[in-house]
Amino acid sequence: MTINYHDYLFIINEANYYKIFGVAQNADLNLITAKYKKLIKILHPDLNPGLTEDGSKMLNLIFRKITSAFNILRSPEERKKYDQALLLSRRVKDRLLISNQSQSEQSAKNLFYKKVLEIQNLIDQQKYREAVRFLKKYNFMFADLAIYHSFIGMLEEKTGLKKEALWEFKTALRYDQEDQIALKHIKPFKMIDF
Q1: Are residues 124 and 70 in the same domain?
Q2: I need a surface site. Which of 4, 111, 161, 163 has the fewest CB within 10 A?
Q3: Comparing 8-12, 23-27, 52-56, 186-190, which segment has the lowest mean pLDDT?
Q4: pTM summary value
Q5: Would you list the DSSP string of 94-109?
Q6: Cα 184 from Cα 188, distance rounded (Å)
Q7: CA–CA separation, 20 vs 39, rounded Å?
Q8: How far apart are CA 185 and CA 171, in angstroms?
Q9: Same domain, yes or no, for 187 and 154?
């Protein structure tokens, strides 16, 4: 029986690995392993042969994210590093929230623009997938910025990943209903039946 992978798309953009498995940060490895095995039984690509090509690609992305998250959380050393990075990202977000919303959003946007400048050479060379991979490493910092999702959507659109691009544009509009980039790029998708 083929699953509805759309219910699990949130996993692709989820920066908190503990949320992927629905556990607390202090969960023991046995609980994380049990949750991992449960997800794998549902989302393993080999167990869902009836999906379209796009559906299969999305399921593979979800599966890889789950496996990557599990591999980090099961290694004590990697989990410690991850927990430290998670704590740091919370501190950064907390500091941004202390100042008023517009200042914190502007600071995050400025930091995002600096990251875009770092990948300008990849974009110039049309290495869009590498640029997306680089930016997604910073999802924990920019996940609530509409411009972040719009920019990734544009890059994914250029690589032919139309469903992923549509997902990013929709996510951008959740954070800013007037995001001009997302609105402009989402219009053509309304004509396409996935």
Answers
A1: no
A2: 4
A3: 186-190
A4: 0.49
A5: HHHHHS-HHHHHHHHH
A6: 8
A7: 9
A8: 13
A9: yes
